[in-house]
Design goal:
CATH topology: Rossmann fold
CATH superfamily: Alpha/Beta hydrolase fold, catalytic domain
Number of helices: 10
Largest sheet: 8 strands, mixed
Shape: globular
Number of strands: 8
CATH class: Alpha Beta
Structural class: alpha/beta
Strand content: 15-25%
Order of helices and strands: HEEEHEHEHHEHEHEHHH
Distance between the termini: 47 Å
Number of domains: 1
Length: 330
């Protein structure tokens, strides 16, 4: 069976069998055949604190010389689901562009509510500060990135200094890349948001749009124009507030795409759909990722001409992923 047809059949079987065999719907994006080569997982399940949800993974380029810039990537899932293993493709994508990448689990609702998940990510950043040099990363060139609820978490860590201060994190955050994130969703109208934020003593203080100051780090904000979970207008309002406050913001609106597509397109399988990885790396480069001005030369991923025939099952997977989410804001 030709490779392309075999890949398409395998992806469809993974989706159809996910429930019966407890597979993640994200598994197709993490198949070795469709992830970036020239990368390695240099840290697997490292504990940054006690507890099963306090572990992290580290990805890096296989060929490492001088220390590399660091991306701390926070996955989404409505603050009530998600696993670091589901986002290997994102870690390897950024590692293929010369970054050392950290993906940390954090506690979820109902075990914790706001601000527990933010405190966990701040604690993981303390591990990065203390240890990332041993894995080839430069803690003075730190960027945050995230998708959906993870984009919210990343933005909040950059904007509310109390979380980092609590854990003694002093690394500068040079920039934040946020995909499909909610930044202005009070009052809390939907179930997932109410469960995560309903008990917050100062609900207005949970909203990134209310925390913008001239000291806010540069932001890259990207969204699909047809996202029904976190609508494009949320990004537009936040971007305008940043601009009004004199904060650098780069915006990207990917025409016709929904909620999950931007993060999926970081990986080699769907990278041809939109230039989100290139846009993100270009933003990081603007703010000092590679001081020499010459970014890392990426190792070519699996030949893209082998991937598009998998469009039919991939569309089914993406539809299933989008259906897992409830709206976060109007």
């Amino acid at each position: 069976m030709p490779f392309r047809r075999a890949l398409a059949v395998l992806l469809l079987l993974l989706v159809l069998s996910a429930q019966a065999f407890a597979l993640s719907v994200m598994d197709p994006f993490n198949l070795p055949a469709v992830m970036d080569g020239g990368t390695v997982k240099v840290g697997d399940g490292i504990a940054y604190a006690d507890g099963p949800r306090h572990k992290l993974d580290v990805y890096a380029p296989e060929a490492r010389g001088t220390s590399a810039p660091v991306v701390f990537f926070v996955y989404g899932g409505g603050w009530n689901r998600g696993e670091r293993s589901d986002y290997q493709f994102a870690g390897r994508a950024l590692a293929s562009r010369g970054f050392v990448v950290v993906i940390a689990d954090y506690r979820l609702v109902p075990e914790v509510t706001y601000p527990g998940f933010l405190e966990d990510s701040a604690n993981a950043l303390r591990w990065v500060q203390d240890n990332i040099a041993s894995y080839g990363g430069d803690p003075t060139r730190l960027f945050l990135a995230g998708h959906s609820a993870g984009a919210y978490n990343a933005v909040m860590l950059a904007m509310d200094p109390s979380f980092l201060r609590e854990y003694g994190v002093t690394m500068p955050i040079l920039g934040v890349a946020a995909l499909s994130g909610p930044y202005d969703f009070y009052p809390f109208e939907y179930g997932e948001v109410q469960n995560a934020f309903g008990a917050a003593p100062n609900p207005q203080g949970t909203q990134p749009i209310n925390l913008v100051t001239p000291e806010t780090p540069p932001m890259y904000l990207a969204t699909g124009t047809t996202d029904p979970i976190v609508r494009m207008q949320n990004t537009e309002r936040f971007a305008q507030k940043l601009k009004d406050s004199g904060v650098w913001v780069t915006t990207r609106y990917y025409e016709g795409f929904g909620h999950m597509e931007p993060v999926i397109a970081m990986g080699a399988m769907w990278r041809w759909r939109m230039p989100v990885l290139d846009d993100m790396v270009a933003f990081f480069q603007m703010f000092g990722a590679f001081p020499s001005g010459v970014p890392y030369v990426a190792v070519a991923p699996n030949p893209p001409e082998q991937l598009p025939e998998a469009i039919a099952p991939m569309e089914q997977i993406v539809d299933e992923l989008n259906a897992m989410f409830q709206p976060i804001e109007n």
